[in-house]
Amino acid sequence: MKFRNVLFSLAIILLLSGCGGRWSTGFDQMLDPNISQNWRVVSVDVVVPETLSISNANNLAPDADIVWHGDPEGDRREQVAQVLEAGILRGSSSLRGGVPVHIVVILEQFHALSPRARRIAPSAVHNIRYTIRVFDNRNGGSLTAPVVVDADIEAFVGAQATAANAAGQTQKVRIINHIAAVTAGWLGVGPDPRREFGGLGR
């Protein structure tokens, strides 16, 4: 039995080894807080292109742009849009300036974990990428160029995931908090979140 368990573990590692690499939380540069602190975010619009593929498969490494099991079965595009919106609104909540702004986000990838991967993978990464841009809500003028944001974050797996869930740190909570921190950093009103790390991911 122990030998079979070892073989099973090796099979998982070999299956996921092609998905290993370097991941990052990053963007080109932080905005000048002397400018962004004049803003007040009145709305966030998250666009999830119909061209993005979706997988609800409960396997170790679903091959799709959107993999999300952090909500009950439903419209995955709408669900991940709500996660992004919540994180960006929270990350920009300290902006209370006089210029009302509208943030537009275009999703490129939102690849979280399937329940099976969360249960048995040796390690994993939530791969999240989007383009973000700020517009003046009064006249529609662009206040920033479009910026590509990589918001990858290490996923909890196995016993760590079970303990995190029990403490209320679900995938959804952790990803929203992470996107909030990334947003605040990009806006120049929070610590710089940019970093690289290794791990298994899509």
Characteristic key phrases:
single chain; 202 residues; alpha/beta; Rossmann fold; 6 helices; 9 strands; globular; disordered N terminus
CATH architecture: 3-Layer(aba) Sandwich
What's the order of the H and E elements?
HEHEEEHEHEEEHHE
Indicate the proportion of strand residues: 25-35%
DSSP helix count? 6
Structural class: alpha/beta
CATH class categorisation:
Alpha Beta
Helical content (DSSP H or I, runs of 4+): 25-40%
On the 0 to 100 scale, the average pLDDT is: 90
Indicate the CATH topology.
Rossmann fold
- Rg over CA atoms, rounded to whole Å, is 18 Å
Provide a descriptive summary of the structure in words.
The protein is an alpha/beta fold and 202 residues long. It has one domain (2-200): Rossmann fold. It has helices spanning 2-17, 33-36, 76-91, 115-120, 158-166, 171-187; strands at 20-26, 39-47, 54-55, 66-67, 99-111, 125-136, 147-151, 153-154, 195-200. Strands 1, 2, 3, 4, 5, 6, 7, 8 and 9 form a nine-stranded mixed beta sheet that branches. Strand 4 (66-67), helix 3 (76-91) and strand 5 form a beta-alpha-beta unit. Helix 3 packs across helix 6 (171-187). The longest helix is centred in the C-terminal third of the chain and has 17 residues, at 171-187. The two termini are 31 Å apart. The model is unreliable at 1-19 (pLDDT under 50).
